[in-house]
């Protein structure tokens, strides 16, 4: 029943996006018009698809120009580019990823002779929190199912949804003008915060923090590590991945769209602060509903409601923020800096209170995982 319910929700979500896009682009095309639309270099469809899949343009043109010599030529270009990238990814996988996966169940020795000074440096005691975060990153990157469902999905989905929902006519002109306008920049940073929480706050890294450990979770009870360190290490891991995405996206928008670097820095700080709360909530939710008795990694991601409920909670939080931002902008007429300070201080206070509560109750929370 869980798979059916989640499948229905996913289908409704996909169909909803499709209906929304069709509503925005109401028009009727004949067969010739559709062919011209696909073949036109300025086509917003091809521009957007090429951003996601670079070979799409050559494949589409090959289909349209099938009656002359251009068709086979573009097919050859399409095949060559695809083959080159296949070889490149295969080489990278052989050199790095597959060795990392093998390293999960085997160990190797470098057989290096080190001096007494080198031994002392390599055995310096480190923070339990830092060591556990490193362990979480290795698990995420070296386990194929975790890498695909947590890392890849977290990077790809927010970017795709951003271009689908917020980019108009294949360009960023609307967003750039709205952000660079001094009269609307205060409202823009509030909307930007809501967008980042909505797009990146629903990743499964936080909502599978404890469930990912499976039956090996019980080992944590015998480690000389505080329960609070284990909890916050898992939350910080999910948060750091979100922060990396924020940084890459912010730099890209500043360079490509010409958005003010000051605005992007403020947006980055505000979104990072907000996503910390979202990831703490997701981690706490998984601790409450953790399922460590799964047979395969696929069951971990397909048969649980936690991610769905966390996604709905993120939408609720985003709506509350939209209401607060609207009041500040439309009724109090605040600008960029006042909007930033108010939202940043608000999230800082909430995060501080929530962290204190989790610190005090970490032992009790983790003891409920059975």
Automatic annotation (TrEMBL):
Domain of life: Bacteria
Parts of the chain that traverse the membrane: 5-23, 73-93, 146-167, 187-210, 231-256, 262-282, 308-331, 337-355
Principal subcellular localisation of the protein: membrane
GO CC aspect terms: membrane
Localization: Membrane
Chain ranges of the ABC-2 type transporter transmembrane domain: 129-282
Protein name according to UniProt: ABC transporter permease
Pfam families for this protein: ABC2_membrane
Recorded topology in the membrane: Multi-pass membrane protein
GO MF: ABC-type transporter activity
Organism lineage: Bacteria, Bacillati, Bacillota, Bacilli, Bacillales
Keywords: Membrane, Transmembrane, Transmembrane helix
């Amino acid at each position: 029943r869980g798979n059916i319910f989640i499948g229905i929700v996913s289908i409704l979500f996909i169909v909803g996006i499709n209906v929304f896009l069709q509503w925005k682009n109401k028009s009727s095309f004949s067969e010739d018009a559709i062919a011209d639309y696909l073949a036109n270099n300025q086509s917003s469809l091809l521009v957007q698809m090429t951003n996601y899949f670079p070979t799409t343009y050559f494949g589409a043109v090959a289909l349209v120009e099938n009656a002359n010599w251009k068709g086979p030529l573009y097919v050859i270009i399409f095949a060559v580019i695809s083959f080159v990238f296949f070889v490149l990814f295969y080489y990278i996988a052989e050199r790095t990823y597959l060795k990392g996966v093998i390293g999960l169940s085997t160990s190797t020795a470098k057989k290096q002779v080190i001096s007494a000074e080198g031994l002392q440096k390599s055995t310096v005691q480190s923070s339990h929190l830092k060591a556990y975060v490193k362990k979480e990153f290795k698990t995420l990157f070296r386990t194929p199912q975790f890498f695909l469902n947590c890392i890849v999905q977290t990077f790809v989905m927010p970017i795709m949804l951003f271009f689908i929902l917020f980019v108009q006519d294949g360009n960023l002109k609307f967003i750039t003008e709205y952000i660079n306008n001094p009269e609307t920049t205060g409202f823009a940073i509030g909307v930007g915060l809501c967008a980042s929480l909505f797009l990146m706050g629903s990743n499964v890294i936080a909502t599978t923090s404890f469930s990912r450990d499976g039956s090996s979770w019980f080992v944590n009870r015998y480690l000389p590590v505080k329960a609070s360190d284990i909890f916050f290490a898992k939350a910080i891991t999910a948060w750091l991945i979100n922060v990396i995405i924020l940084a890459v996206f912010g730099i890209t928008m500043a360079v490509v769209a010409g958005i003010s670097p000051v605005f992007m820095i403020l947006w980055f700080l505000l979104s990072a602060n907000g996503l910390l709360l979202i990831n703490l909530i997701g981690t706490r939710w998984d601790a409450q509903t953790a399922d460590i008795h799964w047979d395969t990694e696929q069951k971990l991601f397909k048969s649980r409601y936690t991610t769905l409920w966390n996604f709905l909670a993120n939408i609720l939080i985003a709506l509350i923020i939209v209401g607060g931002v609207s009041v500040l902008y439309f009724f109090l007429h605040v600008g960029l800096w006042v909007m930033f300070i108010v939202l940043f201080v608000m999230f800082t206070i909430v995060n501080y209170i929530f962290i204190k509560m989790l610190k005090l109750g970490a032992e009790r929370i983790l003891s409920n995982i059975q």
